[in-house]
Amino acid sequence: IITENCSNITELTYRVVGNDISTGNLVIYEGSGYLSDFPGNNHWNPDTMGVFNFTPCLPLGEYAVTYTAIDGCGNISNCTFTMTVEDQIPPVSVCDEHTQVALGGDGMAFVNASTFDDGSYDVCNDVYFKARRMESNNCQTNSQFHDQVKFCCDDINQTIQVVFRVYDIPVPNGSVSES
């Protein structure tokens, strides 16, 4: 709600400034707004509602948002607040129910974690994968998630259960802990 006592509002603008936490790049969006009426507005009071356009999807991070109103006399008033953009929705994990693995001549096979994917997705970001065996054996332990699951001769004629994990943030190459 914008209150003005002596002249009309002539200009409304907004500015959104922050850093993309994944890249560190500076993000700036600027635009204009317009005046609107609203239900219950008392037309005897010289106030009105400022309406500002949507910004494009912002990367995760904190942003300073400033609304500026300028009246016909050149008076300027600002309203600034901090907006935090967070992804609070986990990715959707969809995995293959059955994957057949053939061992190589050396008696081993390495299956990429992405092989177990069957359409996993996230609303905001790309998805990344890790996997581990449900139970340890001589081929590989189950204490960490890996880029690849190792299979060996101990697995022949066995059904090996694999835990498939989907991330919506980049994860480093190599093994990562369970947490």
What can you tell me about this protein's structure?
- With 179 residues, the protein is mainly β.
- Helices cover 0% and strands 43% of the residues.
- The chain has no helices and twelve strands.
- A six-stranded antiparallel β-sheet has the order 1-4-3-2-5-6, with no helix packed on it. The chain has a two-stranded antiparallel sheet with strand order 7-10. The protein has a two-stranded antiparallel ribbon with strand order 8-11.
- A hairpin with a 6-residue loop joins strand 2 and strand 3.
What keywords describe this structure?
six-stranded antiparallel sheet, 179 residues, mainly beta, two-stranded antiparallel ribbon
Q: What sequence of helices (H) and strands (E) makes up the elements?
A: EEEEEEEEEEEE
Percent helix: under 10%
Helical element count? 0
Beta strands, count: 12
Largest sheet: 6 strands, antiparallel
Structural class: mainly beta
Radius of gyration from CA coordinates: 27 Å
* Assembly form of the protein: single chain
Overall residue-averaged pLDDT value: 90
Overall form: rod-shaped
Percent range for β-strand residues: 35-45%
Question: Order of strands side by side in the largest beta sheet?
Answer: 1-4-3-2-5-6
N-to-C CA distance: 46 Å
Low-confidence parts: none
Write a concise synopsis of the structure shown.
The chain contains no helices and twelve strands. The protein is an all-beta fold and 179 residues long.
What are the SSEs and their pairings?
Elements: E1 2-3, E2 9-19, E3 26-36, E4 47-52, E5 61-71, E6 76-85, E7 108-112, E8 128-133, E9 144-145, E10 148-152, E11 162-167, E12 176-177
Antiparallel strand pairs: 1-4, 2-3, 2-5, 3-4, 5-6, 7-10, 8-11, 9-12
